[in-house]
Amino acid sequence: MVTTKRSKLNTLHSEWAPGAPLTSEDLAARGISADLAVHYVRSGWLRRLARGVYCRPNDTLALHPSLLLLERKFPGMHVGGKSALDWYGVRQYVSQQPVLQLYGWATGHLPSWFTERFPAEYHRKRLFDEAPDALLHVGPFEKRSGAPQVSSPERALLELLSEVGVRQSLQEAGELVESAYNLRADVLRELLQHCKSVKTVRLCLQLGSEGSLPWASKLDPDELPTGSDRPWVSRSGDGLLVLKP
Fold first, then answer.
1. In b/e form, how buried is each residue of 79-92, taking b as 16+ CB within 10 angstroms?
2. Rounded mean pLDDT, 101-121
3. Backbone φ and ψ of 150, nearest 5°
4. What span, in angstroms and rounded, lies between the C-alpha atoms of 179 and 213?
5. Are strands 138-140 and 120-124 parallel, antiparallel or unpaired?
6. What percentage of residues in the chain have a pLDDT greater than 70?
7. What's the pLDDT at 108?
């Protein structure tokens, strides 16, 4: 019995990437029952992060594999908004420890084992007409195998703009738009056509035009859901925001 337990443990560690958390389901798939996992924890061969979540003893969790685990729990979860732009090098201010912006399809709360190591916020957002298993322009970061899901720069910008007046200042959003001069107009057009937020569509067109950005001149407002002929008005900490049609 001891030999079998050791054999399973050796096999587990040989297949287990450093920095990656595993769930009870992952362990069960490797022939390690819940009772055996408890034995490994008590013997110091596994460390329990939370109920049903484990890591190697004395291991430092890595962000990317931790995000991959969360993606299995949160439908449509991905790195988006300001964080995705930052990953692509579009940024204005360098924070000592930026808060990771995560978006998903359903309401939920990030587990403490994750947020204690990686300061993050999770937001339920359904900004586009899409399905959680077929998000528009979301894919593995830099198309790398085993990378977490992240918004394209175009989608990330629209996610950022949707937060203006809520969690995002208009000034910083405008500065980030000015830095995003290499956006693909065709991708942005497709996303805007599926966007369900009139504010986001109008704000993108207005800030892009004010900044004389190359992609803005390739977007025809008549082809986009800009809403009615009336101005869109909202009051926030930035003051009164008026977006003309």
1. bbbbbbbbbbebbe
2. 96
3. -145, 145
4. 9
5. unpaired
6. 88
7. 93
Output DSSP code: residue 158.
H
What distance, in Å, lies between the first and last C-alpha atoms of the chain? 73
Beta bridge partners of 58: none
Distance separating alpha carbons of residues 75 and 103, to the nearest angstrom? 10
- Cβ partners under 8 Å of residue 49, min gap 6: 21, 55, 61, 113
pLDDT classification of 240: cutoffs 50, 70, 90: very low
3-state DSSP call for residue 227? coil
CA distances from 53 to 8, 38, 76, 106, 241 (A): 18, 12, 21, 21, 45
What is the average pLDDT across 27-51? 92
| Residue 104 near residue 82, CB atoms below 8 Å | no
Helices (H) and strands (E) in the chain, counts: 10, 10
Query: How far is residue 108's CA from residue 55's CA, in Å, rounded to a whole number?
Result: 23
- E-strand ranges in 56-176 read 78-79, 100-104, 120-124, 138-140, 149-151
Contact present, 115 and 63 (Cβ < 8 Å): no
pTM of the predicted model as reported, rounded to 2 decimal places: 0.89
50: left (phi over 0), alpha (psi -120 to 50) or beta: beta
pLDDT greater than 70 at residue 139:
yes
